[in-house]
Specification:
This protein is of the alpha/beta class. The protein has two domains: 6-255 and 468-484, 3-Layer(aba) Sandwich (Rossmann fold); 277-463, Rossmann fold, CATH 3.40.50.2000. It has helices spanning 23-36, 52-55, 95-98, 115-132, 152-159, 207-214, 223-228, 232-235, 239-244, 280-290, 316-325, 338-350, 363-372, 388-394, 405-410, 416-420, 434-449, 451-463, 469-484; strands spanning 6-11, 40-47, 64-69, 77-84, 87-93, 106-107, 110-111, 142-146, 165-170, 178-180, 200-201, 204-206, 217-220, 249-251, 300-307, 329-336, 355-359, 375-378, 398-402, 427-429. Strands 3-4-5-2-1-8-9-13-14 form a nine-stranded mixed sheet, sandwiched between helices. It has a six-stranded parallel sheet with strand order 17-16-15-18-19-20, sandwiched between helices. Helix 1 links the parallel strand 1 (6-11) and strand 2 (40-47). Helix 10 (280-290) packs across helix 13 and helix 11 packs parallel to helix 17. The relative contact order is 0.10.
């Protein structure tokens, strides 16, 4: 069978291993390699934040400038083609926009005020590359925009009359890229764009809405999230836009890098497998020691998360008290909102020897936590996809998750029916409140006490396939349909 395929320009604000603040970067970095098997060459256009160019592996034959402008939203800019970890990178070097201290979106005093212009510039360049190709003649068949930072790319294609199909992926609809209406001209949007059917959003401009109304196809990062976004409790004001375009919306589940997240080969842990699950106990003992915990006769739960309201951190202290008193333990790794950090610090202070806390993030420590933990808590109020529960399943760390988004798509809750059918892989609870989480932890403790059933659940989760192969095939099929159309 003849391999189909073509060229895709991916437009994003983050990409591992160059820059990462969340799961978006993991997806953007993983897709090019996964799609290559289907004949699609994907290049990733991202800003050249400080240090990005130095990280690129650019052999002499590839170290070239492929696009340049004397005036990109207020200053000179160029695009340099490079490569990192096998991913082809188009790095937009625009010092007046991206050469700043702090993170990609903010510094210590808050978000950069010109974020709308910064990422509009990224999208403008994407449209230029789609229209005329780069200096070497590389021209995409599809432009794939990610989240609000890429939202203006499909809009510019439409308003500039560029006949290249586009895909808009919503990773988290909570971030919408809002700008005042007075910035329309500065954002290079024509007057006719500022209408309810265009970029206008309650008297302002929304970069995410711009992409949603202009793209030829819309994807979300899990099937359930695609359905949820048409409801006001999840759509956050854009539910009507999503519902109106339901015919071109589909949910494609994210994957994890199953080479990096593999307990059989993970250099950060004592290796084990579904066949040699007893070896996981060594990692448990080491994790207890690392967090300074005493003997934990019940399940050792872990929480690896941003510490925010979205992640349900506020319900954790009340919900886990009974669990800890009954013999459970908890190890936490994360950082976030001050109130959430303080709440967990208070929890650890009240339960010495049973609760361990690390404020911050440490990739190697997260691997050790999945390897040593018995269960991973993900009590999110909404979760577009979630990777934490997939990592837990991969490591035999049973997920306890709320019934939202990708959590519900990937974890089969333990019920009498699912246990009888030998299908359960975790504990799923609803609604997202302390009572429901407390009940879920009671169920977890009961399952853990049955060592035979517990081992079966662990092995089922470890054998589940959450790599990128299936998802990449769906993206390839989507691209093929748009290319033919």
């Amino acid at each position: 069978m003849r391999k189909m395929g073509g060229r895709v320009l991916s437009v994003a604000s983050e990409c591992v291993p160059l820059v990462k603040t969340g799961g978006l970067a993991d997806v953007v970095g993983a897709l090019p390699g996964a799609l290559a098997a289907h004949g699609w060459q994907m290049r990733v256009l991202i800003p050249a934040y400080p240090g990005v160019l130095a990280k690129l592996d650019r052999p002499r034959a590839r170290a070239r400038e492929v696009w340049a402008s004397d005036d990109l939203f207020g200053g000179a800019a160029r695009v340099v083609l490079g490569e990192v970890a096998g991913v082809e990178i188009l790095a937009l070097e625009a010092p007046h926009l991206f050469a700043r201290l702090g993170g990609p979106y903010s510094d210590g005093s808050g978000d950069f005020r010109d974020n709308p212009e910064r990422f509009a510039a990224l999208c403008w360049v994407a449209a230029d590359l789609a229209q005329g190709g780069d200096a070497a003649g590389w021209k995409p068949d599809i432009v794939h925009a990610h989240d609000w930072q890429g939202g203006f790319a499909p809009a510019y294609l439409r308003y500039r009359g560029i006949a290249v199909a586009s895909v808009m992926t919503v990773h988290n609809i909570a971030f919408q890229g809002i700008a005042g209406a007075e910035r329309r001209a500065a954002l290079r949007l024509p007057p006719e764009a500022f209408v309810p059917e265009g970029v206008e959003y309650w008297g302002n401009i929304s970069a995410l809405k711009a992409g949603l109304v202009a793209a030829d196809a819309i994807t979300t990062v899990s099937p359930r999230y695609a359905d949820e976004l048409m409801r006001p409790e999840f759509g956050l004001g854009l539910e009507g836009v999503i519902a109106a375009r339901a015919g071109v919306v589909q949910g494609i589940l994210n994957g994890i890098d199953d080479a990096v997240w593999n307990p059989e080969t993970d250099a950060a842990i004592e290796p084990y497998s579904a066949r040699k699950l007893a070896l996981k106990a060594r990692n448990r003992q080491e994790l207890l020691a690392e967090f300074g915990l005493g003997e934990v006769p019940g399940p050792l739960a872990i929480l690896v998360s941003r510490l925010t309201h979205q992640k349900g951190i506020d319900i954790v202290p009340e919900a886990v008290a009974e669990f800890l008193a009954a013999g459970g333990g908890l190890c936490v790794l994360g950082a976030g909102e001050p109130w959430a950090e303080a709440a967990l610090q208070g929890l650890a202070a009240r339960h010495p020897g049973r609760v361990g806390l690390r404020i911050g993030y440490d990739e190697a420590l997260s691997h050790r936590m999945f390897a040593g933990g018995d269960a991973v808590l993900v009590p999110s109020r909404f979760e577009p996809c979630g990777l934490t529960q997939m990592m837990g399943l991969r490591y035999g760390c049973v997920p306890v998750v709320s019934a939202v988004g990708g959590l519900a798509d990937t974890v089969i809750g333990a019920t009498s029916a699912s246990l009888a059918a030998a299908a359960a892989t975790g504990v799923v609870f609803h609604p997202v409140d302390a009572l429901a989480l407390r009940q879920a932890l009671r169920k977890l403790s009961g399952l853990y006490a049955d060592s035979i059933e517990w081992g079966r659940m662990q092995r089922r989760g470890m054998k589940a396939d959450f790599g990128w192969a299936a998802s990449a095939a769906r993206y390839a099929a989507l691209y093929e349909g748009l290319k033919r159309g």
